[in-house]
Amino acid sequence: MLKILLVPALLTALATTIVNGQDGVHPCGANELHRLGALAPEDLQQIQAADAELEAFTVAWAEANSGAERVNYVIPVVFHIIHNYGPENISDEQVYDAIRVLNDDYNKLNLDWPNVRPEFLDLVANVGIEFRLATKDPNGNCTKGITRTVSTLTNDGTQTMKNLIQWPRNKYLNIWVAASADGAAGYTFRPGSVTNNAGADGIVVQHSYTGAIGTSSPSRSRTLTHEVGHWINLQHTWGGTNDPAVAANCNDDDGVSDTPNTIGWTNCTLSGTSCGSLDNVENYMEYSYCSKMFTLGQKTRMLASLNASTSQRNQLTTPANLSATGVSAAPVLCAAEFDANSTLICAGSSVTFTDLSFHGVTTRNWNFPGGTPATSTDATPTITYTEPGTYTVSLTVSDGSSTLTSTQNTSIIVMANPGEAVPVVEGFESVAALNGPEWYVNNPTGGNTFALTSTASFSGSKSVRVLNTAAMDGTSDELLSRTFDMSNAEDIVISFRYAYAKRTSTSDDVLSLYVSNDCGNLWSLRKIMRGSNVLTTGGVVTSSFIPTSASQWGYTEVTNISSTSHVSNFRFKFVFDSNGGNNLYLDDININGMPVGVEDLSNFSDRPLLLVPNPATDRVQVRYALSASSRVRLDVLDALGRQVRLNDLGTVPAGERSFVLDLGALARGSYTVRLIGVNGTLTSRLVVE
């Protein structure tokens, strides 16, 4: 028979949390009612009454069902992934693993239960509760029991976040996964606290405490087991507070006769006798990190709660609800979906596809035009693409009685390997879009990102802009290059023009440049520019920033690119991390691979204006040195002294610099390249072939 101890309402009506991990244990606050918001005296009275009613029901139910035949309970579950495109956007597989851990722990299937202290082996309970992901949503539509909501509230984790989405608590156990659980690893409310507050019912858990794979780990995987225990009316083993390791806890109780009184543990001291008898340190409702079991008494208390009307727990497991949520029948095929580990690769590389269709898929047929193999029936086929191009993918799945074909608009873009020869001058004048083949954009949040614009430019009529606003604070966007052949390079220099203004004096947006020597699989940071220092060229502008003169453009070169990047599939990318400042512009991006043996640059100081290669055809690299920062102009004169090219380079910092000069449609012949700056006028002869 259960030993019931009616503790004061402000202890029994707690929201219960657990904050733990390999890096330490942090007990919860002594009173978590603040998570419910402001409570009037009548609210507290209602909580008291609900707790008392549930305790009385628990005693009666335990007496009536002592020795009764075992009954298995099924609880429909929905996971709400609240994310802002960060690691908290966990995979379906991690959710499935979290369900696995719950079912193992609540059905005595966890492999570690036989390792509990011998004194407690006879008390290890098979609770008999099965958790199943819903296959029907509240409207009866097909679902995998996982929703995904994009919101910065993932970093909040409070009731405000839960208000984003919730399914009826009398039909589903709602579990919210987020980057933050309001300062905890996870938290929930016991049934009496939320009888009259359905919107607060459910469990919030950090992504890194969800399941045992992905962003979580086995040592953190029992957090949900612990929180579900609270959700169906278990207290901590030391009683009705969230503070373990307190001597006064010996005078409290958890309402369960076979869990010895204890002060509560924050480490795995298996021989602990904190209140005069051996403690059940390995209990799931401890903070000990070696949880392996529920007791038989805890089982009775939880099952009593599932049969009580308090917070509608008794409606969850009815046959009608199991049918309505789709967990009582064989799942029906209702969606054909797939994923790819990459959609932008180099020729000769492979893509692994994963069938995400649901439910009950028995056969699948893939088609991969341009790939090898061209077809597959595997769940996760790996396909190799040998030729550059853009290729479609299709998937048809069947459950034996019905067939569905995916309508996803997924294409695999295969870039050349070896890539484009250098040098390359990019002023965006001939670029039609930033979705290939020249440039690609990664815009994970779906908001403003890198885009072509004719609003402003350093040269020509076009540039690339990020229309940066205060609402973009915290977002990250990427502008990625195609492949370039640097296999014969001696030096790699990337230069570009940029313009940026702060929106306030504290704006600190960041522009970074990364390089890759393996087609973009791995990236190395080579340049970082912050709004608080060199990135700002336009001062503070409260309206939408538009550079109106060359003086509002900056210029930089990236030269710290090692010989490990002298490969045939070299790439680089710009990453813009918004701090809610103002607009960013990029123009005149030049990448120069210095061919081996073309020029010996060791005596560069003796030849202050160097042209490589010379003779040239369509492009030439101009290398020069400035003794001080100055305005620089570069032009080209034909054999008669007429100006045929003019490039105002703006203000250029002191030191060795380079610029790729586009020769365009210049006729074959001899020309003079002239550079005017702080060092005076420098000239060099150029032959165009």
Top CATH class of the largest domain: Alpha Beta
Number of domain modules? 4
- Mean of the pLDDT scores? 90
Give the helix tally.
Answer: 8
Major β-sheet profile: 7 strands, mixed
CATH topology of the largest domain: Collagenase (Catalytic Domain)
User: Residue ranges: pLDDT <50 for 5 or more in a row?
Assistant: 1-14, 18-31, 595-606
Strand content: 25-35%
In whole angstroms, the N-to-C terminal distance is 99 Å
- Please count the beta strands (DSSP E, at least 2 residues each): 36
Share of helix, binned: 10-25%
Could you state the CATH homologous superfamily of the largest domain?
Collagenase (Catalytic Domain)
By CATH, the architecture of the largest domain is named: 3-Layer(aba) Sandwich
Q: What global shape is seen?
A: elongated
Structural class: mainly beta
Report Rg. 33 Å
Q: Explain this structure to me?
A:
The chain is built from 8 helices and 36 strands. It is mainly beta and about 700 residues long.
What secondary-structure arrangement, pairings included, does this model have?
Elements: H1 9-12, E1 15-18, H2 41-64, E2 73-83, H3 92-106, E3 129-133, E4 146-150, H4 159-162, E5 173-178, E6 186-189, E7 203-206, H5 223-231, H6 296-306, H7 313-316, H8 319-324, E8 338-340, E9 344-346, E10 349-355, E11 363-367, E12 371-372, E13 375-376, E14 382-385, E15 389-392, E16 394-398, E17 403-405, E18 411-415, E19 424-426, E20 439-442, E21 450-453, E22 463-466, E23 476-481, E24 489-500, E25 510-516, E26 524-530, E27 554-558, E28 571-577, E29 584-595, E30 609-612, E31 619-626, E32 630-637, E33 643-652, E34 655-662, E35 669-677, E36 680-688
Parallel strand pairs: 2-3, 2-4, 2-5, 5-7, 9-18
Antiparallel strand pairs: 1-6, 6-7, 8-10, 10-14, 11-13, 11-16, 12-14, 15-18, 16-17, 19-29, 20-23, 21-22, 22-29, 23-28, 24-27, 24-29, 25-26, 25-28, 30-31, 31-34, 32-33, 32-35, 35-36
Helix pairs in contact: 2-6
